[in-house]
């Protein structure tokens, strides 16, 4: 049930492996740290990872809120739902597009989200059936595009932006992961995946670069442990990056809030 959800934010990428789910988890936690009540939906039906990243024990199952709705699983204060809560780690979701899209809509609409300021949706990579379904069926207030500086990743990020623009969903900005490698021995910084790509794409589409995250081993290690950076080191440099991204996303949502309706002028 989405009637008490103020904003829905899609975190998306044109391709896998760019840190989209890591960004979605830490963005949700950063907005919670900013005083917002936040939910997180893992919309990656084929490869759900939110449960592991949040440290939800394997075998955790949602309880029935009533005859038609699930109660979300709480993790680090977030109200969460994922296909991972309904199947085992070894269960492959060998479904065609319409089946996967239908399952996602059930997770979205039949979860008793309650009163939320923001529902963050971790989208699957790409621009296929699931992405179009949720873009058209849910009133998404804005999208955050995740990429790396590589040319091939930026090419796919552009496709993701174009998809949201075609369905009239504003792009709140771009998060650039693995922007800089910092040597753990000498502190030397090197842009091994390229430099400035996120800014160029943001300028091209009249949006902004929300933030750049370094290629930092702790981000991966903490996610694997079920303790995202916002939880494991809330005052650290990585958490500060996510905090700034969250502030920009919240500002973008509030700036684009047209709940009061358009102004009508008679001439």
Write the layout of secondary structure elements.
Blueprint: E1 5-12, H1 20-33, E2 38-42, H2 50-53, E3 73-75, E4 78-82, H3 97-109, E5 116-122, H4 129-137, E6 142-147, H5 151-166, E7 171-176, E8 181-182, E9 189-190, H6 197-204, E10 209-212, H7 217-224, H8 229-232, H9 237-255
Parallel strand pairs: 1-5, 1-6, 2-4, 2-5, 6-7, 7-10
Antiparallel strand pairs: 3-4, 8-9
Please explain how this structure is put together.
With 267 residues, this protein is an alpha/beta fold. 36% of the residues lie in helices and 18% in strands. The protein contains 9 helices and 10 strands. The chain has helices spanning 20-33, 50-53, 97-109, 129-137, 151-166, 197-204, 217-224, 229-232, 237-255; strands at 5-12, 38-42, 73-75, 78-82, 116-122, 142-147, 171-176, 181-182, 189-190, 209-212. The strands form 2 sheets. An 8-stranded mixed sheet has the order 3-4-2-5-1-6-7-10, sandwiched between helices. Strands 8-9 form a two-stranded antiparallel ribbon. Strand 6 (142-147), helix 5 and strand 7 (171-176) form a beta-alpha-beta unit. Helix 1 (20-33) packs across helix 9 (237-255) and helix 3 (97-109) packs parallel to helix 4 (129-137). 48% of the residues are buried. The model is unreliable at 258-267 (pLDDT under 50).
């Amino acid at each position: 049930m989405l009637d008490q959800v103020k904003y829905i934010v899609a975190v998306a990428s044109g391709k896998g492996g760019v840190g989209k789910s890591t960004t979605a988890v830490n963005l949700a936690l950063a907005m919670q740290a900013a005083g917002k009540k936040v939910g997180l939906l893992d919309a990656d039906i084929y490869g759900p990872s939110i449960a592991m990243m949040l440290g939800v024990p394997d075998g955790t199952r949602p309880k029935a809120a009533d005859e038609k709705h699930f109660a979300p699983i709480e993790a680090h204060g977030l109200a969460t739902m994922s296909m991972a809560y309904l199947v085992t780690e070894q269960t492959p979701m060998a479904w065609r597009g319409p089946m996967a899209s239908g399952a996602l809509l059930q997770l979205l609409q039949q979860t008793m989200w309650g009163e939320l300021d923001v529902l963050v949706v971790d989208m699957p990579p790409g621009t296929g059936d699931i992405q179009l379904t949720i873009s058209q069926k849910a009133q998404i207030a804005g999208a955050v595009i995740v990429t790396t500086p590589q040319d091939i990743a930026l090419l796919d990020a552009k496709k993701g932006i174009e998809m949201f623009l075609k369905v009239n969903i504003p792009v709140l900005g771009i998060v650039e992961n693995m922007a800089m490698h910092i040597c753990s021995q000498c502190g030397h910084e090197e842009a091994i995946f390229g430099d400035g790509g996120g800014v160029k794409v943001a300028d091209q589409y009249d949006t902004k670069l929300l933030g750049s995250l370094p290629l930092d081993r702790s981000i991966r290690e903490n996610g694997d442990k079920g303790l995202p950076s916002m939880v494991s080191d809330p005052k650290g440099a990585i958490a500060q990056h996510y905090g700034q991204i969250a502030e920009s996303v919240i500002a973008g949502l509030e700036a684009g809030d047209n709940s009061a309706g358009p102004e009508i002028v008679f001439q």
